[in-house]
Amino acid sequence: MMKNAFALSLLASSLLFGCSEPVSNVKIDKQAEVDKFADSAKIEFELVSNVPNDKCDSARTDGNCFHGRLHITPAADYAADDLHIYFSQINPVQSVASEHFSIEHINGDLHRLHTKADFNGLQAGETYTVDYWVDFWTLSETDALPNYIAHLDGTEARVIVSTQTQIDVETGLEQYPFVKSFADETTQFKRTKDDATQWATAEHLYQRNAKLNASDHQLATALIPTPSQVIVSTGSIDLQQGIKLNVTGVDKTQLAMAIKRLQQLGISEGDSGVELNLTLDASLAIANEGYQLASSEQGIAIAASSIGGLFYGVQSIAGLVDVTKLTIPHVNIDDAPHYGFRGMMVDVARNFHSKQFVLDLIEQMAAYKLNKLHLHLGDDEGWRLEINDLPELTDIGSKRCFDLTEQRCLLPQLGAGVDPTAAVNGYYSREDYIEILQYADQHQIQVIPSLDMPGHSRSSIVAMKARYKRLMAEGDEQAAKQYLLHDENDTTVYSSIQYYNDNTINACMESSYAFVAKVMDEVKALHAEAGQPLTRYHIGADETAGAWVESPICQAFLANNDEGITKAEQLGGYFVERVAKILSERDIETAGWSDGMSHTRFEKMPNFAQANSWGLTYWQGHQVAHKLANNGWDLVVSSPDVTYFDFPYEADPKEHGYYWASRHSNTEKLFQFMPDNLPVHAEFWLDRQDLPYQTDDTLQKDEQGKVVSGPLNAGVRFAGIQGQLWSENTRNDDLAEYKIFPRLFALAERAWHSPEWAVAYDYNGATFDQNSGRFSAEKRQQRDQLWANFADTIANKELAKLELADIFYRLPTPGAKVVDGKLHMNSPYPGLTMQYRYNDQWQQWTAPVAIDSDVEVRLLSINGDRAGRKLFVKVPKS
User: Fold this and answer.
1) How far is 58 from 614, CA to CA, in rounded Å?
2) Number of DSSP helices (H) and strands (E) in the chain, helices first
3) How far is it, in rounded angstroms, from Cα 688 to Cα 678?
4) If 0-12 CB within 10 Å is exposed, 13-18 middle and 19+ buried, where does residue 652 land?
5) In sequence order, which ranges of 158-291 are alpha helices (DSSP H)?
6) Neighbours of 850 (CB within 10 A)
7) Beta bridge partners of 151
8) For residue 17, what pLDDT is reported?
9) CB–CB of 320/331 below 8 Å?
């Protein structure tokens, strides 16, 4: 018996017109059906609830799961006897409840919704619902990745138009119109029943902003990052006539990019300008990258013992300038950086970001005295660097489209869609990469490339499989196996942190190390050609999840090797050791993430290594950081709580970003960071559910008396700090800049300047919580006042400079509330234009104004060309 009205209508039609052929034998143009469905069907994602119930698999994720629902409404009848819809869902689907559809996990985040065996088509205008339950929770509307794909065997896949993103004309932000807005605080906003996170509503932000101090500094003398020492005199220098440059001890071209920044701000170079005397003298008693700057009636003089210091001195002129006045005060500055490593990591692998984006970022990093660009060029979802003799790495590994065989491209992970030329795809040619290196070198920035391995390596594994297939077809078996990265007889069942089952390079195959050596030789050659030698390479080395156990090659290696490796769990560390040796043979220093580096045997590693510590403060992340630093390695603080720029600025489901470590990680929180003293943050920060936590920095030993964790050894200091932009759902350059700026200002501040309010590290060890009292009330007051001054500098000095550089920075969401029938507003950044929409008109807010209905509020950019994300304000019911 036919199950739906559409099938009955087909039967009636056949009877009416005397058609003797059964409906099941009517020939259907499947491509036409797919095209029609993709163009006209409406699909809506609804989060029903994050509250676990009996539908959750108690054996998975501690019983936590969320209930999602898809609403599928075709605008035209769909006559084909089956339908496949591929979509990205961050966590795996556990179970499905639907009369018509099932869902299966393909790989990574890719799922396939498909019709059941008795499916008989879809009727126009009828809504079909699919309820399903998924691991963990979903807290952001941008979790529902876009570009659902309709496909049938023998047809070309099509993106379902209603699931595409749109750019909001007012904010410039990517919007997800197919996602139903989250509205319920209890069932949709909270992670668990214990979650104490406050929704960043306009009313909540108003109360928070009201507690902020007013700035009490002279804006003219404000400089980001804060110098070590500043002495201010009366008077100022007018730079409207430009500068006359006099350079001693260095070729002027080495400072060209610093001078170019002055020009961008309106300060030209010419004979009638103010004297700017630059002196490089290695014998001066000035720290590396430090400088001395003096401005007076006679002009400006900068002295340094290194080219970097002289470069930063010129950048400080740009930092002092107010672009509306083009003046700087009379000052004497004696300055040097707190950390030698001041870095920014950008992931261009998950979603590609253009060469121009990277060049623009380099300019801004240099402007605020950051000096290390960690460029994450390879991960599961993309390989972004052209490598000689290995064309598949970019021909296939740089693109995601719809090819389930992966002979043309990778699977369409992360909502990539079907178009291999889309902006989320791409790579840097050799010429592009050389240009990036040279541009970085001109800005005193070292590029540290990373092509993640052995985990997070699916793009290279798939590419080398395709290379193997091509060369085997050509009859060249030896060449085919030369760089193979997987054991085709490996039956290990595992799941990576992103739910891939095939993303880990085999650590037991010599061809894996041949591949590493080949890539390293090619990357080193690119650096040499660019004139910036490759002296440090970031392996990645993190998150290898249970791979290799059933690999016959690994089983043979474990049974017979001279390395003392007897367990599969040791192979990840062994891989890092082998790669570190390959790098050392090429005079390249090894860097990697802390978890992978921790699995190595220290005696097998080079004397120098860099480890990026990404342990969460509230999960005792300081313990691994201390262990690696005590080993003598360069420890670069990369704490996700504040240095992961892919996290939301505020706890609001409409704010872009992942949130596994933090629901809100704004610029102020990063300003509060004390990277030299990781455990102390338990006194004033909260965990990811906004609950208090405790850190233990005392000496801990196991039963055998071996030190498990403890404080830093006396005198040990961290090497630096790095901000991270991961790009899983950062799908365009503007959104990448939105997430980086203005947080980069606070990153630069903490990298360059150690404030007086910071709590000195206790090398004796201690425990910290909200009552331990190391961070005194006096220090808190000093920090909060300096934040008020810093925010004033951002809003009234630096944002205008970002606009001149065409940087798409984030505008904060304002605070607002209605009191006694009047709208009150405030902003975390003083001086920004505040607006409210009343009677369908946006109007500027300057003082409490009477309203009698709900309104929307927002902030405007400095130039007025762009609005920030709007919030709703409700009038209290009387």
Assistant:
1) 29
2) 21, 37
3) 16
4) buried
5) 202-210, 256-264
6) 10
7) 84
8) 35
9) yes
Tokens of 382: 């993309």
What are the φ/ψ torsions at residue 709 (nearest 5 degrees)?
-160, 165
Query: pTM here?
Result: 0.96
Tokens of 312: 């930063």
Provide the token pair at 307: 């080219």
Whether cis (ω within 30° of 0) applies to the bond prior to 742 is yes
pLDDT interval class at 27 (50, 70, 90): confident
d(C-alpha 349, C-alpha 425), whole Å: 9
> Omega of the bond prior to 454 within 30 degrees of 0, cis?
yes
**Of the candidates 816, 826, 815, 807, the residue with the CA atom closest to the CA atom of residue 866:** 807
E strands in 622-736: 634-637, 695-696, 700-701, 707-709, 720-725
Runs of H (alpha helix) within 349-401? 355-367, 392-395
Which residues sit opposite 329 in a β-bridge? 236
- Decide: helix, strand or coil at residue 306: coil
pLDDT digits (tens, 9 = 90+) for 581-616: 999 999 999 999 999 999 999 999 999 999 999 999
Neighbours of 66 (CB within 10 A): 25
| Rounded Cα gap, residues 630 and 617, in angstroms | 18
Q: What is the pLDDT of residues 410-450, one digit of tens each?
A: 999 999 999 999 999 999 999 999 999 999 999 999 999 99
Task: Pick the catalytic residue from 203, 386, 543, 655.
Answer: 543
Cβ–Cβ < 8 Å for 303, 270: no
- Tokens 């083009």 sit at which residue? 326
- Residue whose C-alpha is closest to residue 41's, from 49, 29, 33: 33
- Per-residue pLDDT band at 26 (split at 50, 70, 90): low
Note the pLDDT tens digit of each residue in 301-318. Answer: 999 999 999 999 999 999
Alpha-carbon Rg for the chain in angstroms = 29
Q: 3-state class of 77 per DSSP?
A: coil
Tokens at residue 33, please? Answer: 């059906």
Residue 1 identity: M
What average pLDDT is seen over the chain?
Answer: 95
Measuring CA to CA, which residue among 431, 375, 420, 415 is closest to residue 398?
A: 420
Furthest C-alpha separation in the chain: 102
Q: Do the Cβ atoms of 434 and 530 come closer than 8 Å?
A: yes
Specify which residues 96 forms β-bridges with: 132
pLDDT at residue 558 in the model? 96
Distance from the Cα of residue 506 to its chain's centroid: 27
Q: One-letter amino acid identity for 538?
A: H
**Segment 479-531, tens digit of pLDDT:** 999 999 999 999 999 999 999 999 999 999 999 999 999 999 999 999 999 99
CB atoms within 10 A of CB 782: 14
Q: Torsions phi, psi of 794, nearest 5? A: -60, -55
Taking the CB of residue 63, how many other CB atoms lie within 10 A of it?
A: 12
Residue at token pair 């403060």: 617
For CA atoms 827, 831, 835, 836, the dihedral sign is positive
Task: Give the pLDDT confidence score for residue 3 in this predicted structure.
Answer: 37
pLDDT per residue as tens digits for the range 685-738: 999 999 999 999 999 988 888 888 999 999 999 999 999 999 999 999 999 999
Q: 588-622 burial string, b = 16+ CB within 10 Å, else e?
A: bbbbbbbbbbbbbeeeebeeebbbbbbbbbbebbb
122, 108 contact by CB (below 8 A): no
Distance (Å, whole) CA 878 – CA 875: 9
- Which percentage of the chain shows pLDDT scores above 70? 97
Cα separation, 265 vs 319, in Å, equals 10
- pLDDT tens per residue across span 666-692: 999 999 999 999 999 999 999 999 999
What are the strands of the beta sheet with 299-304, ordered from one edge?
A: 229-238, 327-335, 291-296, 299-304, 274-280, 243-248
Beta bridge partners of 269: 243
The residues pairing with 71 across neighbouring beta strands, listed in sequence order, are: 44, 129
Active-site residue, 543 included: yes
